[in-house]
Amino acid sequence: MHLGHDAAVPSGVSRRTFAALTGAAALGALVAVPRAAAAPAVAPGLDDPAKKETAMKLVSSAENSSLDWKAQYAYIEDIGDGRGYTAGIIGFCSGTGDMLDLVQLYADRGPGNVLAPYLPALRRVNGTDSHAGLDPDFPRNWRTAAQDAVFQQAQNDERDRVYFDPAVRRGKADGLRALGQFAYYDAIVMHGDGTDVTGFRAIRERALWSAEPPARGGDETVYLDAFLDARVWAMKQEEAHSDTSRVDTAQRVFLRNGNLDLNPPLDWRVYGDSYHID
């Protein structure tokens, strides 16, 4: 930058140094230094407390025909699906092992509780629909245990360990937002995470035959459509789960509305009943 003859040079500073300093200042005034772009806000995942509460209500609407999921700690009945007793906030089953794990955890945390004596029977009936060693008092004692905060917390913890946390983790790994994470969660709740043809892993693999998840460069809506199609196929393989309204008039409705973040208000129907979350 040329320094005019009338510019005052401070005492003790050479003309060349002054020129360099004033030139840099002028350049800084003329050239705007671009700021780093702010990172886009990341929408809360299903593990956000408010989203998780929504997930619990959605599952309860399908499993218990109620949004009051906390009232389900005491729920227990045999729904005739070949899994023995179904009970609690997520449908722990005497025939699939998750009820056994829950009661064992409860016995570890609260020795001598009313369900601990049933551990041997739960081990024997695991893998069957038998009530041997459980009837006639197991349902009554389950409802008694459900009043114990220790048992309630054990149900929460087993739900998270076996179903919720794995579903959210896998959903995030596939690049899915809250709705997709919920679709995974609801599928694991109903079908389990085993290796059978109707389990969650098989459902996901079936979806991957026709679509890629966002983490692999795919379109999220297209992939979730494929996943829900695979889920419906799996449900129809079992008479007890052949009503697919929890997908058709609930999850699919949210997807059609473009509500990939599962934001309220939400309106859906399950088994013909209507539900709403503000």
Automatic annotation (TrEMBL):
Reactions this protein catalyses: Endohydrolysis of beta-(1->4)-linkages between D-glucosamine residues in a partly acetylated chitosan
Enzyme class: hydrolase
Positions annotated as active site in the UniProt record: 63 (proton donor), 81 (nucleophile)
Protein localization: Secreted
Function noted in UniProt: Aids in the defense against invading fungal pathogens by degrading their cell wall chitosan.
Any one of the GO BP annotations: carbohydrate metabolic process
SUPFAM superfamilies xref list: Lysozyme-like
PROSITE patterns for this protein: CHITOSANASE_46_80, TAT
GO cellular component, as recorded: extracellular region
Organism placement in taxonomy: Bacteria, Bacillati, Actinomycetota, Actinomycetes, Kitasatosporales
InterPro entries, A to Z: Glyco_hydro_46, Glyco_hydro_46_N, Lysozyme-like_dom_sf, TAT_signal
EC number of the protein: 3.2.1.132
Record's keyword terms, sorted: Glycosidase, Hydrolase, Secreted
GO molecular function term, any single one: chitosanase activity
A Pfam family per the record: Glyco_hydro_46
Similarity field: Belongs to the glycosyl hydrolase 46 family.
The protein's name: Chitosanase
Natural source organism: Streptomyces shenzhenensis
Record carries keyword tRNA-binding: no
